[in-house]
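Chapter summary example.
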Amino acid sequence: MSITATVVIDPGHGGTGPGLGGSDANHAVSPSGAKEKNMTLQLGLLVKNALQTAALNGGHTINVVMTRDTDTNLSLAARANVARSRHADRLLSIHFNGFNHLARGTETLIRGVADGNVNHADDKKFATRIQNAAFGVLRAHDPGAKDRGVKDQKLGVLNDVQLGNTAGGHCRACMIEVEFIDVAAVDALLNTGANAAVVRGELAQGIANAILDDLVNP
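The structure predicted for these 218 residues follows.
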């Protein structure tokens, strides 16, 4: 059965200067100097292309909308509002983590019930697919990869009011923190290693397949 849907891809951060509406220009930086804002945009565009190709091959019509495709920064509400204005079926916000140069792992976040999530169960199904796909790719290339699971967290970009869900909308939304890029091994895995481009491509394909699966088999 073919489907028609709209998917919003939100590459986190962007731009320069102080944060706008809770969205800072950049958070994590890798040992080689790769900035999170550039990595999120790069991966987001790869996911867009992979999803469009997978949809075409499957006979589906999927409109993929980027919240940004250049080095700009939108507020968290504005990012979510892209989904609301486009009546999106899915929103995926892409981020990378950074902490103490030691912490590892991939996690996917959804807004909790206590924070007003009106479709928590559906968001969790979507997030679990995204989490499993991304972690599976990373673990296949790096035995040091860790699965931090799906977690509830109060995030503005996942606010159902801004997503349009409280007015009868049906947008499933989650945010993936792909890995901790301040760790040298992760930097090599995703940026500087000889196989980094392959890993990024497989990561994008895995995420795209997870999005499509969630749309076709809700």
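To summarize the output: Residues 4-216 form a domain with the Aminopeptidase fold (CATH 3.40.630.40).
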